[in-house]
Amino acid sequence: MVSLADVKKAQKEIQETIHRTPILTSSLLDERCGMEVFLKAEHLQKTGSFKIRGATNAVKQAAAAGARFITAASSGNHGQAIAYIAGRMGIPAIIIVPEDANRAKVEAIKAYGAKVEYCGLTSAERIPRAEQLAERNNGVYIPPYDHPAVIAGQGTVALEILEQVPEADTIVVPVGGGGLISGILSAVKNSKPSIRIIGVEPETANDTFLSLQKGEITAISGTSTIADGLRTSQPGDLTFPVLKEHLDDLVLVSETEIKEAFRFLLERTKQLVEPSGATALAAVMAGKNEMEIKKAVVVLTGGNIDLLKISHVLEN
Ligand SMILES: *Cc1c(COP(=O)(O)O)cnc(C)c1O
């Protein structure tokens, strides 16, 4: 498991690159949820998501070990984050994206200074290509969640939360591959273990829920949620054991509940948060917690959404 010291070290490594994002509150939200809710605004983070934390820590570590070339296999927030930090550090990077990748996302990756290569439609096709390119060019392939430096980097969000909301009793976090939540668990359960950590998945991408139920990594196929950052088919080899040992609860939300949280954030708090980023709030708004919560920190993980898709998310 990543240690608290690893997360603190990551914080030092990345603090000049990332924003210390604010905590947002809304009395209307508190009333609706029957608890105090503190929104950790990672949608206002550099590159629009928390992924820059892990990406920065991993790229810096790779560069320190002599890597002169970086690859990643993601058209989403991880790909953008790797492109940004590699560009800023002057390290050449190639991001492998699916053939049907969204054009706006590809343009964002290029604008950060990385090259883009199209490959297949699945991550099973992209990852070997990214690994191969890294190997050929004396470089390093950086995965989106199953990597100790990535996990430690994501965990830095918890160090900020502990300082910003020291009286919080619960932290609610969306779960894709589990990099973010295992980083948060590594920081919190090694310092203030009484704080409960609740993971949230879409009902239609419930691989971690099923894996926890079975007690072993379990893959699903055909995830189709609107929360595209949570469409992983199974939890990671490094992340899953941390969740299995330390996670307090994992709850599921419906597509409608995610859309309701998205709408609330946009309409009432004026915050544009992508569906994946609104998923943890969806669980709190729908009262999915079994245990009573007084003060919850909800991580709004990202804000990158194709503007043309907003009306679709607002539909019921
Ligand atoms: C990647 C991502 C997640 C999920 O993070 P994992 O580390 O894969 O669990 C959640 N929200 C957003 C916006 C993301 O980009």
Short description:
The chain has 316 residues and is of the alpha/beta class. It has helices at 4-14, 27-33, 51-64, 77-89, 103-111, 123-136, 148-164, 179-188, 207-214, 239-246, 255-269, 275-285, 310-314, and strands spanning 23-24, 36-41, 70-72, 93-97, 115-118, 140-141, 170-174, 196-202, 249-253, 295-300. InterPro entries: Ser/Thr_deHydtase_PyrdxlP-BS, TrpB-like_PALP, TrpB-like_PALP_sf.
What labels describe this entry?
binds pyridoxal-5'-phosphate, Rossmann fold, 316 residues, 10 strands, 6-stranded mixed beta sheet, 2 domains, alpha/beta
SSE topology:
Elements: H1 4-14, E1 23-24, H2 27-33, E2 36-41, H3 51-64, E3 70-72, H4 77-89, E4 93-97, H5 103-111, E5 115-118, H6 123-136, E6 140-141, H7 148-164, E7 170-174, H8 179-188, E8 196-202, H9 207-214, H10 239-246, E9 249-253, H11 255-269, H12 275-285, E10 295-300, H13 310-314
Parallel strand pairs: 2-10, 3-4, 3-6, 4-5, 7-8, 7-10, 8-9
Antiparallel strand pairs: 1-2
Helix pairs in contact: 1-3, 1-7, 1-8, 3-4, 3-7, 4-5, 7-8, 8-10, 11-12
Bound molecules: pyridoxal-5'-phosphate.
Characterise this structure.
By secondary structure, the chain is of the alpha/beta class. It folds into two domains: 4-50 and 149-314, Rossmann fold (3-Layer(aba) Sandwich), CATH 3.40.50; 51-146, Rossmann fold (3-Layer(aba) Sandwich). It has helices at 4-14, 27-33, 51-64, 77-89, 103-111, 123-136, 148-164, 179-188, 207-214, 239-246, 255-269, 275-285, 310-314; strands spanning 23-24, 36-41, 70-72, 93-97, 115-118, 140-141, 170-174, 196-202, 249-253, 295-300. The chain has a six-stranded mixed sheet, sandwiched between helices. It has a four-stranded parallel sheet with strand order 5-4-3-6, with helices on both faces. The longest helix has 17 residues, at 148-164. The radius of gyration is 18 Å and the shape is globular. The mean pLDDT is 96. The structure holds pyridoxal-5'-phosphate (PLP). The site of pyridoxal-5'-phosphate (PLP) has 19 residues, from helix 8 and helix 12.
